[in-house]
Write a structure and sequence with these properties.
9 helices; single chain
Amino acid sequence: MAADRQTVLSWLADLAATTVTDVDDLSDISQRIVAAPALDAAAFAAETLAITRIIAESVTLPAEFDRIAAPASASGETLQAFSILVAMGSAIAGCRVEWPSRPAARRARTRVSAAGDAGATAAGSLGGDGADLYAWLTAVTAIACRLISDIAADAAPIIRVETGVSLPSTVLAYQLYGDATRAGAMVDLAGSATPMIMPTLFDALAS
């Protein structure tokens, strides 16, 4: 049984809609998705890889990287197809994000490595037809993990901040960094429900 083409294309369309901001790229992806069902198996596989690459190259934010994941309902050969697409997409996207902290970059590297392993396993199950794909995915994953390791080395570590009293995020951002405009990023990292009243104990960037 072959992979469910409509499921794969719907996933690509949804991913593009939430990630790609360039109007021309989005139009190109839409046209290619419409034409893809008529392609033969080999051409369809190559086309979905190409579309995934375009989407991954549009990623700039951690939340966009997180969206590159196989649907929970995927199984069988459809899941194998997703494993390959996610492996390539994660490797490309993971190197494009400006990870806000060292732990975030390390988590991304772990995810890229795991996705690469799953993709290589899926490619290996294709036998001789998947040999080149297996070698390519393995190489791309290794390169991506090295690049993300470099990003992690340069990224700021996380510190634990204890204030004893709840304060507005702008006040804390100024106290910590001398820059009140960093309040939004601090709120996101701390997981605070409101920027006006920060928790008395939270994680923040060291610098």
